[in-house]
Amino acid sequence: MRVTSALREEDRRMARRAIVWGPPWLRRVGPVLDEAAEHTKLWWAAAGTMAAVGNRRGRSAAAAGVAAMTVAELLSNRVAKQLYERRRPPREWVPQEELRDCPDSSSFPSGHTAAAVAFSGAVAPAWPAAGAACGTAAMLVAAQRLHSGAHYPSDVAAGGAIGLAGAGLVRAGWSRWGA
Questions:
Q1: N or C: which end of the chain has fewer CB within 10 A?
Q2: 37 dihedral zone (left: phi>0; alpha: psi -120 to 50; beta)
Q3: pLDDT tens, residue by residue, 129-143
């Protein structure tokens, strides 16, 4: 019990720090990035671009990314969020000028991070350059979820783990079925 309490308190302390931390460019880019990642628009746009310009490799990478993203969203939003109800960080931690609408769903895990990591992780083996670009965007999405006060660090870490699991499941299936 004591360890759990200490971990919870450290998570809260790190969240308060992450909300106020950040270079000025992150504060400017954050809302745009948040909007792009909402409802996985960013990843659908990336998949469409890869499929359009990448020939067979691009279509395979896009299909793997979308499949992994779907698996991760199901695991994070339809399973984990239903099993563990967690309040989001208090709105008073977020500077007034940066306060935006916050979802009503459970804070744990970060579905945005799960989708971003899954997409990037599944794209990378098929098309490493596209995977690196998507991975950079995924890291920015995860940082923005912390910085905006939408999630605690453990929410983002769990979302990342779910994303990696989703990418791994899809890549394993791809290998098994020869895609």
A1: N
A2: alpha
A3: 999 999 999 998 998
- Distance from C-alpha of 66 to C-alpha of 49, rounded to nearest angstrom: 13
So where are the chain's domains?
A: 25-86+105-176
Length of the chain as a residue count: 179
Tokens for 44, please give them.
Answer: 């659908």
Phi-psi region of 39 (alpha: psi -120 to 50; beta: other; left: phi over 0): left
**Sole residue written with tokens 């605690």:** 152
- Look at the pTM and tell me if it is higher than 0.70: yes
Looking at residue 132, its amino acid is: A
Nearest Cα neighbor of 119 from 167, 56, 170, 173 is 167
Which letter does DSSP use for residue 54 in this model?
Answer: S
Among the listed residues 119, 115, 133, the one whose alpha carbon sits nearest the alpha carbon of residue 63: 119
